[in-house]
Amino acid sequence: MSGKEQVSKLVSYGIRPDHLDGHQHVHLIPGLWRIARSIALKYHVPRIRTSYHSVIRALFTGDPGAVLFQILALLRHAQVPNAIRTLGVLSSCRFTVQSVLADVIASADKKKKIEIMVHPAFLTENLQKTFGYWKASFEKEIFELEILRKIVASHRVSSDKELRTAYESFPFLVRCYVLIRNSLCPFGLLEKLVPEKGNIVSCGEGYGIFQVKLRAGSAYRTITSVENDPRRCKVLRSLSARHDFSVIEEDAVNYLRNTTEKFECVSFIDVLYQISYARQMH
Fold it and tell me: Which pLDDT score is estimated for 158?
């Protein structure tokens, strides 16, 4: 059955498609693209999927095929009205939160529509037999989608209220630094990935932004902040009583090597630049 016949059949049943798509993006190919556009025009379909995520992200995959695919998708994206980005096409069958999170949050902040391409499934014997050659991470994608759902559901476009309150008595420059730093690093999103209960150690986040977020997110965390800069430890101690976390003035690597404590989560945020490459490798 041709594409035109498929859409005509749907319309005859009173179903109006909200977009057109082709299996494995074949509708982007020049000859088929012309047909897809003519069908959309004839049946008043408002959108054609362009399968565009990002040419730049495609370059980072190191796959020439992915780059060419996204260049073609970008061209199609510019040719049609109501086009929205299709996140996840560059991690097809190997979807992870990391592959789309930044773009999902940026789109949410700008209130832009997106779609996410995933292949979640429970791996049955029949599925393994039929599609095993794909080497897809079907069940892992279910887990990744749940993490993404949790992050997006709890995301707030403006999440600096608790910071303004926490640092209101600090010098003006410190307050400015904290707000700028918070805008550059997604502390609120990272907090959602941390267990809501148990021992949590935060290494190197010397001005306490992440510690404040951790406490605001859950009252059931035992939070330890490890920092070796005396000036930053002073800031941390000023925050620690009100936000219920302990401060240890020590090199984080040495602390973790020597401590007998057990932790549910250990975070390192922007600390690698303080550690020599040789020590990182060690």
Answer: 45
